[in-house]
Amino acid sequence: MIKKNFLFLLIIVICLSFTDFLALADKFKPLKEGDELPLIQLPTPETLEERNYLGNDEEGFFIIPKIEANVVIVYFFSFYCRFCAAQAVHLKELYNAIDKNPDLKKKIKFLGIGIGNTPMEVDAYKEANRIPFPLIPDTDFSVHKAYGEIMTPYFIVIRIKEDGTHRVIYSTYAFDDVNAFLKLILKKSELAQ
Questions:
Q1: Are both 85 and 171 inside the same structural domain?
Q2: Are 7 and 101 found together in one domain?
Q3: If DSSP states are collapsed to H, E and C, what string results for 25-94?
Q4: pLDDT tens per residue across span 19-52
Q5: Distance CA 161, CA 147 (A)
Q6: Together in a domain, 23 and 89
Q7: Are 20 and 102 contained in the same domain?
Q8: Of these four, 12, 83, 134, 186, which has the most CB atoms within 10 Å of its CB?
Q9: What is the pTM of this model?
């Protein structure tokens, strides 16, 4: 009798967990290839160096399509996400590969958004993982909601045309092959030589 009750209880827990999982998965609607990026005002980074990197030397707010680049790789992370810390290794390797290439360095920029993180948590993540590009907080989850309530780590790659139009050219949860990821971005962005 105890075994039957336990088995019955186990089946109920599994079914409820699966139902919760499906409900949760239904909420996540990440931007996909061809989508236009929602124009959310983001706080400009505090340092002049980071503002110059993005091509915006003014304090206040900016939108991603105004970043001076042909391609922007937006990295969504959380200070509390252990997978984000592991992904940071590949991310820095990708950043360094682009930074060492004088032609790509001006065409591809990075921006990190700390989902639900305070400025202090974003700074702590940046320092702990030695992230070399601007990271900004999304304390109230507004960017997170507008971009499909994605889980972290997540990447959205945006192609910005000279006329200011922009589209998502790729989105993914993570990558581990830096060279393959860079080749894919170059191909999809039509920056491949």
A1: yes
A2: no
A3: HHHCCCCCCCCCCCCCCEECCCCHHHHHHHCCCCCCEECHHHCCCCEEEEEEECCCCHHHHHHHHHHHHH
A4: 444 444 455 577 788 788 888 889 999 888 999 9
A5: 20
A6: no
A7: no
A8: 134
A9: 0.83
